[in-house]
Amino acid sequence: MIPRQDHGVRFPLSLSLVCVASLATASGRVVRVEERRAREVFIPGGELVMGVSSKDDDVETLFEECATAFEQTDHRQFPTVGGGGTTLCELYKLQLQAMTDSVPTETDRPLPRKVFLSPFAIDRDEVTVADYRRCIVVGGCSLDPLVSADERYIVAAWPLVNVTWFEAQTYCRWRGGRLPTEAEWEKAARGDDGRRWPWGGRNRDADFNHGKPRDEAMREVDRIAWLGVPTQFIGDPDDSDGTALIAPPGSFPWSEGPYGTRDQAGNVAEWTADTFGGMAPSLAVDERALGYTGLSAINPRRDGNANDPKVVRGGSWRQPAFLGRADVRDPYNVLYVPEGRFSHIGFRCARDL
Q1: Which residues form the domain of 16?
Q2: Spatial distance between the Cα atoms of 337 and 328, rounded to a whole number of angstroms
Q3: Do 343 and 207 fall within a single domain?
Q4: Exposed (0-12), middle (13-18) or buried (19+): which is 109, by Cβ within 10 Å?
Q5: Judging by DSSP bridges, how do beta strands 120-123 and 40-43 pair with one another?
Q6: Same domain, yes or no, for 236 and 256?
Q7: Residue 117, strand partner residues
Q8: Same domain, yes or no, for 146 and 226?
Q9: What is the pTM of this model?
């Protein structure tokens, strides 16, 4: 067996493979040629079963995960259309039930909630600070995300956070694309085999950049306001996965999705194009409209009102690991107004084919 020798010789990616091969033969060295992966991955059109499965008591399990993570010290009540109140995780359970694949029919037989998507392209990675700066330089994007929040998160190689939904849309349009719909985001993360996690299977058997429930002592330190109510923020970073805060895209390659997307579980949560259902004009929660009610089965998208909360998917570096699942929304979705800036929410772009 001939031992491998690698003297670290590198060549520009534009150099032809013929020249590289000839040089390698002449020098007797092993030449390492780095493959630059494409910015986008291409998702074929076809069917998708959206949401949480009605099997295996999955909704109840997620409800218990929510209660353990968020309701140990946070007992706020959310107003409902009926005039009552409900807790965050009770609201989440209603949302999960409305999104299961068990849809009652006239014969009371469950049917999967299937949608059909046209082919599309979506970014392999989350948009980074460096990506966004290029848009600023040519006058296409606002400087505000880089000057409006904690400078610790403004690292060129990291995904951009503290970016509003409107600013994310503007960036994607500058690139000739748009934000992905919730259905497109889920298709890219799940493929067509009903997996719970982007890497496949029903269990969390790969690591990714996630957080943990908020330490009680910290709940009073970091607050945001929503409808005049002080809201303890959603979680703390967890360095047990090897990263304390945000990580450069692709730092966890073993957690890639079925089409090659990276970080759809964790790192930063991601804006989608869809408006969050369940918000009444009075800003109370309408528990009857928390799922996919009224959406088309072909290329579904809920537009809603411009200032309604938007759907966020994927979990993040400061949220409990269960939110990294590819088939669930975030319990705090009701708070994600499009003009808001959040240190755990970024985005990726998509485009029609």
Answers
A1: 1-36
A2: 19
A3: yes
A4: exposed
A5: antiparallel
A6: yes
A7: 46
A8: yes
A9: 0.85
Q: What is the pLDDT of residue 10?
A: 34
The confidence score (pLDDT) of residue 290 equals: 85
pLDDT higher than 70, residue 320: yes
Write phi, then psi, for 259 (nearest 5 degrees). Answer: -110, 5
> Which residue type is seen at 139?
G
Q: Kindly give, in sequence order, each residue whose CB lies less than 8 Å from that of residue 119, ignoring residues fewer than 6 positions away.
A: 42, 43, 44, 45, 353
CA–CA distances in Å: residue 192 to residues 98, 182, 189, 320 = 21, 15, 10, 26
Beta-bridge mates of residue 298: 116
Give the number of other Cβ atoms within 10 Å of residue 63's Cβ.
19
- The Cα–Cα gap between 330 and 265 comes to 12
DSSP state of 273: E
**CA pair distance 243, 216, nearest whole angstrom:** 22
Digit-coded pLDDT (tens) for 146-179: 998 788 999 999 999 999 999 999 999 999 999 9
What pairs with residue 313 in β-bridges? 270, 329
pLDDT of 262 strictly over 90: yes
Same domain, 6 and 57: no
Distances (CA, A) of 28 to 35, 38, 86: 22, 31, 71
User: Are 305 and 262 in a shared domain?
Assistant: yes
- Number of domains into which the chain is organized: 2
Q: What is the DSSP string of 319-334?
A: S-GGGG-TT-B-GGGG
Dihedral sign of CA atoms 290, 302, 246, 188 in order: positive
Q: Examine the pLDDT at 187 and tell me if it is beyond 50.
A: yes
